[in-house]
Amino acid sequence: MRIPLSWIREYTQFPADGTAEDLMAELVRVGLEEEEVHTNGLSGPIVVGEVLEKTPEPQSNGKTINWCQVRVVAKGHTQTLTGDGIDPSGVQGVVCGADNFEVGDKVVVTLPGSVLPGDFRIAARKTYGHVSAGMIASVKELGIGEDHDGILVLGTLGLDPEPGTDALELLGLSDSAAEINVTPDRGYAFSIRGVAREYSHATGTDFTDPAHQVTPLQDGSPGHPVVLNDDAPIYGIPGCDTFVARSVTGVDASAPTPPWMAARLRLAGIRPISLAVDISNYVMWELGQPLHFYDAEKLNGPIQVRRSAPGEKLTTLDDKQRALNTEDLVIADDRGAIGLAGVMGGASTEVSEATSTVLIEAAHFDPISVSRTRRRHKLPSEAAKRNERGVDPLLPTTAAQRAVDLLVQLAGGTDTGEVTHVGDPITPETIALDPSLPERIVGVPYGAQQVTEALTAVGCAIQAQDNGMLSVTPPSWRPDLTIPESLVEEIARLVGYDTIPSRLPVAPAGRGLTEAQQRRRTVFTGLAAAGFTEVLTYPFYSVEANQLFGRANGAEELPMVRLANPIASQFPTLRTTLLPGILDSLRRNVSRGFTDVALFEAGSVFRPDGKMGSEEIPGLGFYPGDDVIEELRAGIPHQPLHLAVAVSGQEPVDNVGGPGRARDWADAVEAARKVAQLLGVELDVLQGEHQAFHPGRTAQLQLKGELVGYAGELHPKVAEQQDLPARTSVMELDLGTLIAAATGQTIAEPISTFPPTTQDVALIVDEAVTAGELRQTLTEGAGDLLESVELFDVYSGEGIGEGKKSMAFALRFRAADRTLTAEEASAARSDAVALTGERHGALQRG
């Protein structure tokens, strides 16, 4: 929203020497963000001149120029300006290429030293055999129009100023504007009226409401008939609750827009078009009420406000034919739609230079209806911007009268004295406010008097109740004030955000993170401490990526959630696994030279297991019922929490200059064990198979016999296809299952003060027997004295036999109450070896 300073001064006590920066600094205090400053880009001596002589001089190039003598001071006075090229007599010699002016005309002269838009600097220079000391300006050169070939003759604007008059002041070009950002909930600030009120709040100065400067006609005769006929309101709210129509006859629609009005509109960011259009825009900017003007002679029958008929079309003012939707609210006459209500008018009833009778529309429309129409037709407009944020429902009568007054004053029209007013405005409802609520929410000890003063300044009507509560009726221009909390926000804003203390609230007893949240945080912190970096990736995958990583060898077809409106055609489904996303992050890091990478990601995956979605979405504004809620929940896919890691390159060295160790599948398995250790659960690591993993370097992760994930090295072909390092290793776990299995706090076992006894054993088994299986059997057979068992060697080849392998384990024994003897340790070792022989046919290697 741009605010010309001369305009805001009419309704506030903004200082005459105040700048746009000063205005924005004050408005920031009440929550209106500053954007930038706008000017007309003109400076220096730009004055009114009277043409004394005009001598045509044909040139050899076929062009004719005019050598002119122009008086730039009042008759009988001498020039007070000094500078290179300025004649002290007050008569300047100027070369001009245009020919649409005559001797005696008053024109705008840019004297040497002045600057025009685009940093075009004027100086005395020799051209066409003369020294041209200045320039007679066109509207385009002054930045106030598009006509470059014609000189601006002030008489065409109805102006006859004295030579030497400051043309910038005369044409309103010395003004500047402050631009602010208006949030969607504060539509009232899309007007000079609203911003002026906010300035008064920020500074404590007086505010003159421009709406109070207008005296609406109350007892006019019936005007053009209007019928409100909305038979399909959205959420039961009528599309139009108030419609005011006024008529002005004898309008000279070709009359020029006054320079002061055109200048303000340009600074506000609106291009002047014609007097009628400019007046409607001026009133909208001033009061915040969008208007629409109709050529009354082009209307056929009464105006109707209704929903569009099936198949109905409309050509809007931008000359585009639009196929209307039956939900669109339209303005119509007996021939059909003549405008999109609250968005844009139609071309068939547009005001033109031939218009003599103007019908003014000032109406209050439902914001939801306007917003949907605007979005449906991709038709942004200043009117829609205000209507969809909420306009003062009591303003149409005043705004229509303001437009009538301007048409009478500037276009020579005559007020017919007719008034059409249909409908009843919907005003804000009264809110019950506990005076202590602002202090409880904000933490500032607002007293009852301060609460009352702040809300009264906003425009609220307040009445104290016997029970101590306040009945607060918001002003008609604040549709956003609907609940007590919104009133609290206004109190905090007006009293000052700087008064709010910077302290954290004390959490109520018994609150905080849930056990599941604490465990998730423990896992994430532990992985970060182990050298992993967390990443967050998009959940949108290709079908192929989900199929490759989301199911193991031989698994049946993987069900997926398909998106109705994917962000890209190649990513039409939601993820069923985290691996494609984290591998994409790893690939991006490696491609930028970060080859030593260890990443982890936690997030939901989407596993549909039945019905998807619901037959219909319930409407807004009411509770749909428990059955409908249950149906909606039943249509949501299962979303287990997964955790994935990806590693490549080398791990950091312990000492500077020391050798690094290449990361491999063991790091991925160790990450899974780290997660299990942090949660206090026991993972079983078994030989596994997965189509995306290396056939000999894949671990299957189980929890109490249930498959919860995979870890290992990527299949070489997959790594090559994905443009990943050759020895990339990954792991993915169902973290939600592990968290659910965690029983609570991990209890550390006491450390024995007695020494351990270590014995090694090498067992020959079939190639199909895994180290995990053999380790589990040794643990079970050795009994309670066994403290740990670790695999330290695997051998196959000469001396072992075809289809066999040797695995060597270190078994550490310890007793809690005594020093073990060698015989006790050997007996436990023998029991463990015997059990491996029974279960796996293991033979002890000599």
From TrEMBL:
Binding residues for Mg(2+): 480, 489-490
Recorded catalytic activity of this chain's protein: tRNA(Phe) + L-phenylalanine + ATP = L-phenylalanyl-tRNA(Phe) + AMP + diphosphate + H(+)
Cellular location(s): Cytoplasm
Pfam families linked to this entry: B3_4, B5, FDX-ACB, tRNA_synthFbeta
Primary localisation category: cytoplasm
Cofactor note: Binds 2 magnesium ions per tetramer.
Domain named TRNA-binding: residues: 40-168
Keyword Nucleotide-binding: yes
Domain called FDX-ACB: residue spans: 752-845
Keywords of this entry: Aminoacyl-tRNA synthetase, ATP-binding, Cytoplasm, Ligase, Magnesium, Metal-binding, Nucleotide-binding, Protein biosynthesis, RNA-binding, tRNA-binding
Location of the B5 domain: 426-502
One function term, GO molecular function aspect: magnesium ion binding
GO biological process: phenylalanyl-tRNA aminoacylation
Annotated SMART domains: B3_4 (SM00873), B5 (SM00874), FDX-ACB (SM00896)
GO cellular component term of the entry, any: phenylalanine-tRNA ligase complex
CDD domains: PheRS_beta_core, tRNA_bind_bactPheRS
Enzyme Commission code(s) on record: 6.1.1.20
HAMAP family xref list: Phe_tRNA_synth_beta1 (MF_00283)
Assembly with partners or alone: Tetramer of two alpha and two beta subunits.
Family per record: Belongs to the phenylalanyl-tRNA synthetase beta subunit family. Type 1 subfamily.
NCBIfam families (alphabetical): pheT_bact (TIGR00472)
Name listed for the protein in its UniProt record: Phenylalanine--tRNA ligase beta subunit
Organism of this sequence: Nesterenkonia salmonea
Lineage, top ranks: Bacteria, Bacillati, Actinomycetota, Actinomycetes, Micrococcales
Gene (UniProt): pheT
